[in-house]
Amino acid sequence: MNERDALLRAVCDTPDDDTPRLVFADWLQEHGDEARAEFIRVQIALARGDASARLKEREQELFAAHQEVWEQPFEKFKAANSFRNLIYDVFFHRGFIRALVICDEEKQFADHATEVFQLAPIQRITFFHKWPHAASAECAELLRLKELRIYRAGFETKALGALLRSKSLLNVTRLELIADNDNGYLTAEGIELLSRSTALPALRHLDLSYNCIWLAILTEGDLIGQLESLKLRCTDIDDSGAEVLARCERLRSLTHLDLTANRIGDRGLRALATSRNLPRLTTLDLRHNLYDTEGGVEIRGCTPETRQILEDRFGAGVLIDGRLEE
Questions:
Q1: Which InterPro entries does its entry note (predicted)?
Q2: How many CB atoms lie within 10 A of CB 96?
């Protein structure tokens, strides 16, 4: 292993530590790659909270000029005899590629995972389209992940069960299972597998948006008690669903609840506002809901009386108006 490879290995092995990244930047500058060295330092400064317009502009200038070269090591991962790349997109953070978007319809990920994770400190992967869960879920390299997103991949119960039994997800803190009209939704059986899974001890953030959620099943298992944030955007939740959440004693650790684009009425909103089972909840996102009044009339935005109850409970943490963020 040469000096450069050793320095990169240190970055990959300690992804949360900026010191190996800055050491690598110094080495790059000493060996003539001043642009990449500067890019690493600029992105670290941005990640540490320096939000100056000039720094952001410099980041974009460097990236536009050198993106193709910096992403070149991942160009080799193309599925044989297919129009789809295995690595579909990459995202930089703190100077190195942190996140990948993968299309594994050709079942190449398991074969290349070791090499992929040696190239960069990968901590987030998005799998989209049909993903062979059983073939890839046991890759030991997934232990490096903090965030796993499965999007437009379908959620067949057998395949999902293989994923949720994996011993390689022990360090995942954020899981997103995003449904899609063409590729399917979580079933009741899938929700039950998730709610009772013991394979995700570090999980704190769960996103099940665009599924049809069986909340009674989701809230029965112990997994819900680990969560700090729960996103249920566009999941057809009504008053009864909101009441299920309000009654759930396992949600006591929840600080953020996203219920945007649902159809919760006054009854459900008041149940959430008065629940004693949500003592830590500071952010309740209710934007783009259709609210049912007592007379059965749908309105955008809630009644003034209910709005006041919500604001009294959550203050600025209740989001009722405004555009949704992607």
A1: CHP02996_rpt-companion-dom (IPR014338), Leu-rich_rpt (IPR001611), LRR_dom_sf (IPR032675), RanGap (IPR027038)
A2: 21
Cα(294)–Cα(134) distance, rounded to whole angstroms?
Answer: 48
Domain final residue pick, 58, 80, 98: 58
Give ∠ CA 250-256-257 in degrees, rounded to 5: 75
Is residue 211 assigned to a domain? no
Q: What residues contact 30, with CB distance under 8 A and at least 6 apart?
A: none
Please provide the size of the chain in residues: 326
- ∠ CA 124-126-129, rounded to 5°: 165
Calculate the CA 96 to chain-centre distance: 19
**Residue 298 within a domain:** yes
Q: What's the total number of domains in the chain?
A: 2
The amino acid sitting at 155 is: F
CA distance 263 to 302: 11
**CATH code of 299's domain:** 3.80.10.10
Distances (CA, A) of 281 to 187, 243, 252, 265, 272: 28, 15, 8, 20, 10
Other beta carbons within 10 Å of 294? 9
pLDDT digits (tens, 9 = 90+) for 231-251: 999 999 999 999 999 999 999
Task: Give the residue numbers spanning the domain of 311.
Answer: 228-326
